[in-house]
Records
---
Amino acid sequence: MSRISLDGEEVNFEGPPPGSVAEVWALIENHLAGAGALVDRFLVDGVDWDPETGAVPDRYETIEIRSISHRESAARLAREWVSGGEALRTSWKEGASRSLRTPWSDFQAKSIEILQQTEPLIGSLNALRDLAQQQGLACFDDLTETTNSLSGALETAIDAIEAGACVAYSDAAAGVVYQALGDTISVLETEVAPQLQEGGAK
């Protein structure tokens, strides 16, 4: 008989376990949502599976599910941005220099690439800010300020890209964007991640 476990505990259904992997995912996801948690890992016969990236297996013998709380997931997200933050800042700093040494028509594609690497950070910051507000965390005000600052800095860079203004782009990339990214990484590392992990409330 198929076996399904959640965080090491066997899941008992009324009747036989669902025959569909997708159905198991939906049931567990709904159950965890009610408990303020998410699916962290979903292993089908020992292999990681995700409905968004993997084909649905025809059958299964065992499904092992590991959950994570919203706070833990958010703390992990903050730490991931901290981990990659310095490389992102370096990309902007190097881009500022290259934009003055390279014809804009040759550099423009790279400027857009650097921007696209950065834009998901704004989405992450907005999600973290919403959670910080819901949880009453002390980092909410600083997170709001740094999010707004980074958004404004990126808008300045976008205006320069759209205008094809290499000097304005260089000034923005090495100036407001570089500084805002540094401030953002600092807030994520020293305030957001620790408070989500430990529960620092106002």
Note: The CA atoms of residues 41 and 66 lie 5 Å apart.
---
Amino acid sequence: MIGRVDYMAMARNSVREHMVREIRDGDVIEYFKKKSWTIVDVSAETLELITSDSPAVINCGHSKSPVHMLTLALNPSKLFLMQPAAETIDEETLKAIVVCHNLSLLESDGQFLYSRSRLEDGPIIKLRTAAELYFGRSTETHHSPPEQSGD
């Protein structure tokens, strides 16, 4: 018996197969091994990191290839940063990369945005306004109603 063909599943499997081939490619591995890998702690800053269902930001969202820099929020205060090993980044540039990471997630392919706390507009960066603009809806969080006790 022939069933229906799930073309979306076929496409996802094709993408996964390509990703596995790239991960196993010695040239790709060497390329990433030559990069500097750093965990940036932003807990002292007033800005929290956000993430999405498409969490990696490549080249601050400008182009996907070649990969010069990659950022990934590990939690609200820790950012994984991969960059060329020869480059030194000062504190001001790191702050700009954090802001760039958050704003680039808004323009990414993700459908969902995740934040530990309510997004707020700051005096310079209007993150809440930007999120509402890109996602086309309010960023108000929805919480489940409290459970009723059986008393």
Note: The longest helix spans residues 7-24.
---
Amino acid sequence: MKKLIFAVALLVLSAVCVNAQDLSNLSKAVRAAYDFLKEEGYKPEVDEDNDVVFKAQGVWFYLDNYPQDDTYLKVVLPEIHEVDVNNARQKEAALFACNEITRGKKLIQAYMWKDGTIEFSTATYIPSSGEVDEFVAASIEYMMAAVTPWVETFTGALE
């Protein structure tokens, strides 16, 4: 019984140490955003790339971690759509929709990767951690509100 209790305690302690070690690799801005997400009831986790992943409004987001820059914060809504890059009409419509969202929506950058994956992101300079909360909350709100207009613009351009 003592061995079982010791093994469980060791497992819990090692999990806590690994988590703390992962957080030490986060930039100050990303760490502040991580803390905000945790306080708000989201369940942020540090992935293998030292980015912070979390689910909001039923959708996965991540904080792109730049440990060499403590003032840069980028929130990403990945893979909102996938386009067949070999289909010229789809590719053109997707790029048109990305341009319309980037040009017409606050904070949002919409772009297509070489493989046809469409992503949204927001990025900003955060001089102090006190400004992180509002930026992260606004980023989630604005990106979620831009998904439907992107899809409508994309499908409209295909017609």
Note: The chain has a mean pLDDT of 86.
